[in-house]
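Holo prediction — adenosine-5'-diphosphate.
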Amino acid sequence: MIHVNIENYLNKNVSTLKGVGNKIKNLLKKKSIDKVSDLLLNLPQGYTDRRNYKKLNELEIGKITTIKVYIKKYNFPRIRNLPNKVICEDETGKIDITFFNSREGYIRKILPINQTMIISGKINYFRNKYQITNPTYIVPESKENYINQIIPKYSLTEGLTEKIYRKLIEQVLEKIIEINEWHDTETLKKIGNTSWAQSVKFLHSGKNIDLNSTHYKRLAYDEIISNLLVLSQVRKRIKKFKKNKKKTKNTLSKILEKNFKFSLTLDQKRVINEIGTDLKSEYRMLRILQGDVGSGKTIVAFISAAEVIESGYQVAMMAPTEILARQHYQLAKNIFKSTNINIELYTGKSESNVKKDIQKKTLNGEVNLLIGTHALFQKKVIFKKLGYVIIDEQHKFGVKQRIELSKKGGKECDILLMSATPIPRTLVMTLYGDMDVSRIIEKPKNRKGVITISKPESKVNEVLLFIKSQITKGNQIFWVCPLIKESKKLDYSAAIQKYSFLSKLFRDKVGLIHGSLEKDEKEKVLNLFLKKKIDILVSTTVIEVGIDFPKANVIIIENSNKFGLSQLHQLRGRIGRGENQGTCILLYKKNLSDNAKKRLRILKSSNDGFLIAEEDMKLRGYGDILGYQQSGIKNFKFADPIHHKDLFDMAEKNIKKIEGSENNFKKYEFLLKLFDKADVINKINNITS
Ligand code: ADP
Ligand code: MG
């Protein structure tokens, strides 16, 4: 095929380019440029107009300017650290061209005396003289054309000059020729009818860097589609596996429903049906259940587990922490109590004889529902007939882990992931395109909810009075001092200070957890809080999602203006899970920015995680929204869910068409290589074959 050569060329390391030795290779690496294609995907941020010729009496300080001058005289001081100077002139005046760290011989060569040269660089003024320091370009008149141009401007790093970079990118762009189109005519028309080659070349001119230009949109769409293609491939691989239909009359789940003190919400019922349909189908389920903290996902999971158990299979449920696993276990014990279902808890911390016993019972099929932590996936844990894996709070799972998991579970295994991280609609496909998605939006009716108020830090005394009265009533308090910089040097000093401050007032009723505590220590403190041995828990943002602290009804969040909506909403979700009214107090330092005021207002007026996620994205850009970075999928280079919502929607529709045929898929091979997805797809095929 015609583009095989380009494809190979682009896939090579930059060191295959002319002019790239070790030094430049390392500089490029600093900019995350390894392969030739990375150069191509690194777009300029604008351009420099070097056609801006000026006579020496027309110079403006600070402007990038091109001059045509006569080389008059050298001034090479023999003193260290003083720059070498070359005095140049035209008919209107004089200028110094100065060089730091350049040898005389080199300067004599590039600026030969008594010659006319073209020089381009930024004008400055020093000791009553104009000068250009280390000019970007110096060429003889015969090569004037190379400078007399609009030249694209890239984000560079020290040592990587425009001149060097230009040599590289020009080499690459020269190789770009029209290649076979992968999009169908209709799609192409919608994104502006420019070919990939045209678009890339045009964008590298730097002349139009508008996100909504047709050239840009073409590349953005290519990127979105390449993402969806990967996920679609995963989905196809997993769905390809047939399984035995799970047969159940739902008698067990009906018994369970009687064991709740409440009735299920409509959303819960709908989702239970969606899962049930998958369980009963002949294809394996890979589904994610999204729902705000407290929306009642766990119950849904248990009801679906009951259906699977009734059909003769075992169920495994995994939680990210020991405490959460234990809570799930207790809840399961409670709601399965009038049945003869056998439930066990298996974590890394279980006694070894208990573990052995459970392993035995799991292997011989006595255990119907095994709840635990990561330990569930140890080799020693072998199920007799595993039919369903449920994973709670899955946001730490990337695409690869999902595939591995599906393999581990075995052929009959349906998979449900649960996440309390609401993702804006536009991103659902690009994050979870390999899965089916269920959403719970409606909250249980009996919730009094959370009242959210904001206060300047100067009024912290009112807050202290309030929490005192709450503690007297038997309530507990979260006090969150989030890390301001998520730097490697963890800055939890604020939390420690607050801890000692509160300890003076509330003595030994205060606990502290932060990110650098070992998991065990953290769980110890959480347990103290859970058992009400302490009343106030001071923490950085590390409070685990999902744990039920029934008596904790107040959360104080310091520096709340520094945080995104989704993050604040997640924190707030730790309270108000029971039937009591929760209070969330957002503390801020004085002088809120307009944006921060807006965020607090949204938070006060809504308790809907999905809506908040949308607003958060609009306010902060998609790169920052919670969960996105943890998802294991790299940020987009071109596509932006806010600007390109139409492209995302279009891709979502088109991917279904593409999925239909293997042949169709082949057309996109170039694209997948370009965006580094080919390897991922190979891995998928290896894992699932
Ligand atoms: P999630 O995992 O979605 O954060 P949970 O499943 O832990 O939420 O549920 C939070 C609390 O709400 C639990 O105490 C649960 O028993 C309760 N709950 C669940 N569904 C309902 C409902 N329909 N009505 C009332 N309470 C409910
Ligand atoms: Mg939960």
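READOUT: The longest strand covers residues 64-75.
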